[in-house]
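The material for today's practical consists of a large collection of protein records. Backbone structure tokens are a discrete shorthand for how the chain folds in space. An example says more than a description, so a record of this kind follows:
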Amino acid sequence: MHFEVVYTTGLSGFIGKNLLPLLLKKFPKIINFRRDNVHEVYTQDGKIEIADNKDLTISNSDKLFINIAALYNAAPKTTIELENLYMSNTILPINIIENYLGSKNLKIIQLASYFQLLDLELQTPYSLTKSLGMKYMEKNYDNVSFIYLFDTFGTGDNRNRVIDTFLNKIIDNKSIELPKTDVYINISHVSDVCEAIIDSI
């Protein structure tokens, strides 16, 4: 397959911001769908345009869709929070595919969570909504790749995850308290994650 345009979600997030420069080295145009029914167009000359999705025209050429965006909430406390998880992690990518991209000449790369690899009793509402969308893609589209992520870290990470918290405490000359029990942490540097996405294309 030969891609002139790459369609994405989640370029405003930590992984997306690191992936975008790599995509622009390989492809002349990146179109990023947002949750508010608009999309951003990134080009190799550094221009960024924002337009309404209803104004988007998509050719019948080969299409690549990289779904990075995810709403994380391991323990929603209200039906509204649960609905937001479902709409973001299950419905949004499916709607983008069905309403704009279609199934012909389409390759999908879907980022997934290691939570989804755990036994069912260890799943969270977050991982279950991700799995729902992925099951739908797997059953209805021919060319789908899943990339399972452990926790990520790297330059520009301000999400207050483990590595970021450790670094900030070290910079501020504060002590780091570790639990008395063994804790195993699986982490991946964002550059390795981005390279895996590029390789899967």
